[in-house]
Amino acid sequence: MPRLSSLEDLERLYATQGALTYGEGVSQIEHALQCAILAQEDGAPPSLIIAALLHDVGHLFEVAEDVARFEVDDRHQSTGADALRGLFDEAVCGPIALHVAAKRYLCCKEAGYHAALSFASQASLKLQGGPFDADQAAAFERLPYWREAVTLRRYDDIGKRDEMSAHAFADFMPVMRELLIDKAKA
User: Fold this and answer.
1) Partners of 21 in the β-ladder
2) Cα–Cα dist 177/110, whole Å
3) What one-character DSSP code corresponds to residue 161?
4) What is the pLDDT of residue 183?
5) 77: part of which helix (H) or strand (E)?
6) Domain limits of the chain?
7) At a CB cut-off of 8 Å and minimum separation 6, what does 154 contact?
């Protein structure tokens, strides 16, 4: 199980793996930045801004062609949240862990949501269990951070634009430092 021990580790991971793509037409780093900027512009709390920035960090740990071809579910939401738990509390990690479930939830609850998903999100949805049924959706609504996960999912859906953001990963380091569980890990 990958574990990040410092913000330096996290920054290095994005510097070395952030240029990867996963079928969306934007790099991992660009997608992360777009999502964080959307959260910022929406007036989201710092924890949700950083969750938006880091929600797909689990994709960066294993570069597998099967994942890129949508042949396996890499469970990036769990891998990413678990890797970040030594750095951040559940206000950051909880929405990350639930952002795939939030996609399944929205497919169940909102007419037209599934059809509006990108090709890559539709393909990965099949591997992730498909849309929730009513019972699964009700159970999801009982989880801590489910609302934040749904909001994060909406940033995730929009943050795949062709235009490049005017921000860098380093721009979010001060916010991440403030949210660290152990400030010595900065």
Assistant:
1) 27
2) 36
3) -
4) 67
5) helix 76-84
6) 7-177
7) none
Q: Number of helices (H) and strands (E) in the chain: give both, helices first.
A: 11, 0
The alpha carbon of 25 is separated from its chain's Cα centroid by a whole number of angstroms, namely 16
CATH number of 7-177: 1.10.3210.10
What is the pLDDT confidence band of residue 164, given thresholds at 50, 70 and 90?
A: confident
User: What is the pLDDT averaged over residues 56-75?
Assistant: 65
**Per-residue pLDDT tens over the stretch 137-163:** 999 999 999 999 999 999 999 998 887
Residue type, 2: P
Give the chain's radius of gyration (CA, Å).
Answer: 15
Q: Are 109 and 139 in contact (CB under 8 A)?
A: no
Q: Does pTM top 0.85 for this prediction?
A: yes
Nearest to 58 by CA among 83, 27, 34, 39: 83
Q: What is the largest CA-CA distance in the chain?
A: 46
**What's at 133, amino acid-wise?**
D
Work out the average pLDDT over 174-186. 86
- CB neighbours (10 Å) of residue 108? 18
Could you read off the pLDDT of 15-39 as tens digits, one per residue? Answer: 999 988 867 778 999 999 999 999 9
